[in-house]
Specification:
With 254 residues, this protein is of the alpha/beta class. It has helices spanning 5-8, 12-23, 43-51, 64-70, 85-88, 110-118, 138-147, 152-155, 168-177, 197-205, 210-214, 218-235, and strands spanning 33-37, 56-61, 78-82, 95-101, 121-132, 181-194, 241-253. The protein starts with a helix and ends with a strand. Keywords: Methyltransferase, Transferase.
Length: 254
C-alpha cells in the first residue's frame, strides 16, 4: 500500500491531537525502552522521545515512503526500521512501552493481536494505543458501502476493508485478561471543520481510501472517486460542515 506523507500531513493538526491525548496517559519513568508501532513519518516518535526522560525508542513502519521522511528525526535515542507490526511483535524483544497511534486498525484479528502485543511488555511495562473507530465514522461507512456496489465490487474482486477495531468492552476485557492495571478505555470525538466537500474527500484520501485506489485503475477508478465525492456532497449538504471523527484510546500498565 503506497502512502503519501505529504497527503497524510495535510491534516496534521487534526491527526496530532489524539497523539497528545494518548501521550498524556503514559506514566513518566526514566530510561524507558519503547517501540512505536506504525510510526509513519517519525515526527511523533521523536516528539514522544523528547517528552520522557532518557527514552530510547524504535519506530517501525511498513511504508518505505513514510520512513524516508522519518530519517530526518533519527537521533542517538530515536531509530527506525522497515518492518510490519506483525513482524515486530514476533521478534521476542520486550519493551517498557508499546505505543501505537492510528496504526493497529490496519492489522486484522485483534483478539489474537492484542495478547501477542501485550506479551512484548517487560514487567511493569505500559501500553498506549489509539485507533479510529472506522465503522462509527461516516466517511468510512460511505466508502465501505460504495465498494460493495457495481461496477466497483467486481473491479475490486469482492474485496472490501472491514475494520478490525473492536468495541470498548472488548478492549477492556483484552487488557484485563492479560493482567492489565490502571486500565483506561475511552472514546473521543475529534471534530474536523471542513470548509468544503473537497476537504472531507482529501481527509480520507490520505488514509482509508488508499487501499481502494491501489486496487482500481483506469475509468472505473475515476468513476469510483467521482461517485464517492458525490456521496460526500449528498451526505454533507451544507458546508462548512463538522465531521465528528471518533477515536478509541487505550492504556494499561503490566
Amino acid at each position: 500500500m503506497a502512502w503519501n506523507p505529504g497527503k497524510y500531513n495535510e491534516f496534521k493538526s487534526v491527526r496530532f491531537k489524539p497523539f497528545f491525548d494518548l501521550a498524556a496517559l503514559i506514566e513518566d519513568r526514566p530510561g524507558m525502552e519503547a517501540v512505536d508501532l506504525g510510526c509513519g513519518t517519525g515526527e511523533q516518535t521523536a516528539m514522544l522521545a523528547g517528552q520522557f526522560a532518557d527514552m530510547h525508542i524504535l519506530g517501525i513502519d511498513s511504508s518505505a515512503e513514510m520512513l524516508a521522511e522519518a530519517e530526518s528525526f533519527r537521533k542517538t535515542n530515536v531509530s527506525f526500521a522497515l518492518q510490519t507490526i506483525e513482524q515486530t511483535i514476533t521478534t521476542g524483544k520486550q519493551w517498557d512501552l508499546v505505543f501505537s497511534n492510528a496504526a493497529l486498525q490496519w492489522v486484522d484479528n485483534h483478539e489474537q493481536l492484542f495478547p501477542a502485543l501485550l506479551a512484548r511488555l517487560k514487567p511493569g511495562g505500559q501500553v498506549a494505543i489509539q485507533m479510529p473507530c472506522q465503522e462509527d465514522n461516516l466517511l468510512n461507512r460511505l466508502l465501505y458501502a460504495l465498494a460493495g456496489e457495481e461496477p466497483f465490487c467486481t473491479a475490486l474482486q469482492g474485496w472490501n476493508r472491514r475494520s478490525p477495531v473492536l468495541s470498548m468492552d472488548d478492549y477492556a476485557q483484552l487488557l484485563f485478561a492479560q493482567g492489565g492495571q490502571e486500565i483506561t478505555v475511552l472514546q473521543k470525538v475529534y471534530p474536523l471543520i471542513a470548509a468544503s466537500h473537497d476537504d472531507l474527500f482529501q481527509f480520507i484520501s490520505g488514509s482509508a481510501l488508499i487501499p481502494y485506489l491501489d486496487r482500481l485503475e483506469g475509468p472505473v477508478r475515476d468513476q469510483f472517486v467521482h461517485t464517492f465525492r458525490q456521496r460526500i456532497a449528498a451526505t454533507f449538504p451544507v458546508v462548512p460542515a463538522l465531521y465528528a471523527f471518533k477515536r478509541i484510546l487505550l492504556y494499561a500498565q503490566y
